[in-house]
Design brief:
Helix content is about 50%, strand content about 15%. It is α+β, with helices and mostly antiparallel strands. The strands form four sheets. Strands 4, 5, 6, 7, 8 and 9 form a six-stranded antiparallel sheet that branches. It has a three-stranded antiparallel sheet with strand order 3-2-10, with helices on one face. A two-stranded antiparallel sheet has the order 1-13. A hairpin with a 2-residue loop joins strand 6 and strand 7. The longest helix has 29 residues. It is flat, with a radius of gyration of 36 Å. The N and C termini lie far apart (about 95 Å). The relative contact order is 0.10.
């Protein structure tokens, strides 16, 4: 083995470690495939599946419809359209300093807003929204998914059977290994040249046939407050594959739907309703098979009667045949009562699953009169169910994703390096803060409280109650609860003062004109004519 090979070669520990960690993942992967089988089978196909293999076809569609509905709801909450999912939060000390000079504060806020819009444009430009749709589906069905945002390129998604992880007892990520199978032709020329020397690779065996595909292991491991990475093939560390990031700027996000402190992987949302989905699948299959049997038409002819079975079988439409009507009967499928019971149980399962998947139609009870307030309240209750999920996704998805995108844009000099601005305490002056998800739920509850106050307290009392309310402050709070930027929307005190002065000027001018008109009425005709002409000229000059 040459010196160059000795420097780059390592033991095949990555493949061995990946194989060992696969055993810890096996139970989670099995449940993920069972969940996908009843919802969207292509999300987690069975082991050994290829593009030419056929996937299982579910007998019901409530699973796939529910997953798509819940995914759309989560996406619109976590990453709203035409609205940033974060804002920069300025430290208290910086706020005190900026409060002393309003012009400087306005300029700083303007610059931060420009950076926020630039980051939001970058998110849309990287097609992260489309990638998150698939990622959220994996979370709902499989409970786990890994996102990787490299230095260049779009967000990459790896399903559960493509990676393994290790965590500490508190759930912090210690290690992640991604396994990719790539064709030899897609590798750089220098890597292909290294792979073409079997005698210099530790894992090669004499007489081994040249391979067309290779397993590439991308390893991320935590060391102190940094995440380190490298890639290896056949026990050989690839050159130029090493990297290192601060822990809060890690390019990978190993997401979970829910988790337990002593488990490396998360549990899926479908796990909680697998019983209802399994029942709906079985009953849907039974009903469809029973319906197919009921739709079968088989005439029966009395063998001792006058009608011949062959005549009945060969007769065309409206053709006259000889026989007796009593000799011919139709085969009946007398299972209507049993099918009605099956249909009732299936409908009950579908109703429960509709609630579980947050389908809005499911919140409306059957009745002649269902108020809009009743529907709003039930939808709000359903949103509250996802409050814990929003909190976990804000911690593991939204904030790390925003920080990573900001770090990448700072490296490309697309935005100012805000992370380098630190206060006397050593902490960044401006840090991103997530304003969607659980934060949006809190603001939504505030808005509902304001509506209740106006409708149930202020409106019944009338003017006496409104006289005690600081109306501008109430409007501002309601706008904030709706995530509306009030900058330039509401009148400032200076604007109000200018309007009052203008209004007072107009009123004074009208009073002067009225006074002159009153004086004209008591004057002589000649004087009145001169005064009227003067007033008309004054009005014309004012206009």
């Amino acid at each position: 083995m040459t010196d160059a090979a000795i420097e780059t070669a390592v033991t095949d520990a990555d493949a061995a470690l990946y194989s060992r960690l696969e055993s810890d993942r096996e139970d989670f992967l099995y449940r993920a495939r069972e969940n996908a089988k009843l919802t969207i089978p292509s999300l987690m196909p069975p082991e050994g599946h290829s593009s030419a293999s056929a996937l299982y076809k579910p007998w019901q569609s409530i699973g796939s419809h529910g997953v798509n509905t819940l995914t759309a709801k989560l996406l619109m909450t976590l990453l709203p359209a035409n609205s940033p999912m974060f804002r920069f939060s300025v430290s208290d000390q910086a706020v005190e300093e900026l409060a002393q000079d309003k012009n400087v504060r306005a300029e700083v806020e303007k610059k931060l807003n420009e950076v926020e819009r630039s980051v939001q444009d970058e998110i849309e430009g990287l097609s992260i929204r489309a990638a998150l749709v698939e990622a959220l589906k994996h979370l709902v069905v499989c409970g786990n998914v890994l996102l990787y945002l490299p230095k260049k390129g779009n967000l990459r998604i790896f399903r559960l059977d493509r990676y393994v992880v290790q965590r500490d007892y508190e759930g912090n990520l210690l290690r992640a290994i991604i396994k990719e199978t790539v064709a030899k032709e897609t590798l750089p020329d220098d890597i292909q040249a290294m792979l073409s020397k079997p005698s210099e690779l530790p894992s090669d065996k004499p007489g081994q046939v040249a391979e067309k595909e290779y397993d590439v292991y991308t390893v991320f491991h935590r060391k102190g407050d940094r995440i380190h990475t490298y890639q290896s093939i056949k026990g050989m560390k690839l050159p130029r594959s090493e990297g290192s990031w601060k822990l809060d700027k890690s390019p990978i996000m190993a997401l979970r739907w829910t988790y337990l402190h002593d488990e490396d992987y998360g549990r899926a949302y479908i796990d909680e309703y697998i019983g209802d989905l399994t029942g709906a699948e079985a009953l849907s299959k039974s009903l469809r098979e029973a319906a197919a049997a009921s739709s079968k038409i088989n005439p029966m002819v009395n063998p001792t009667g006058l009608t011949r079975a062959q005549d009945v079988a060969d007769a065309e439409n409206l053709e006259v045949i000889s026989g007796r009507a009593d000799d011919v009967t139709m085969l009946q499928f007398d299972k209507q009562a049993d099918m009605a019971i099956t249909q009732g149980v299936l409908q009950d399962l579908i109703t429960r699953l509709s609630y579980a998947f947050m389908m809005n139609k499911s919140v409306q009870r059957n009745g002649e009169r269902v108020t809009a307030e009743e529907v709003r309240t039930m939808i709000s209750d359903i949103d509250d169910v996802l409050g814990g999920i929003y909190s976990l996704l804000a911690q593991e998805l939204q904030l790390p994703l925003v920080i990573r995108i900001i770090d990448r844009m700072e490296g490309e000099r697309k935005i100012p390096r805000l992370s380098g601005l630190k206060g006397p305490d050593g902490k960044p002056v401006a840090r991103p803060k997530i304003v969607t998800g659980i934060e949006a739920l809190g603001r939504g509850h505030d808005y509902n409280k304001y509506q209740t106050l106006i409708r149930d307290v202020l409106a019944p009392i009338g003017d006496a109650a409104w006289g005690e309310v600081n109306l501008p402050d109430l409007i501002k709070r309601a706008a904030v609860s709706l995530s509306i930027d009030t900058d330039g929307l509401l009148k400032s005190p200076e604007d109000k003062q200018a309007e009052q002065q203008q209004q007072m000027g107009l009123q004074q001018g009208q009073a002067n004109q009225q006074m002159l008109m009153d004086m004209v009425k008591g004057a002589t005709p000649q004087v009145a004519k001169v005064a009227s002409e003067g007033i008309a000229n004054q009005i014309q000059g004012t206009e």
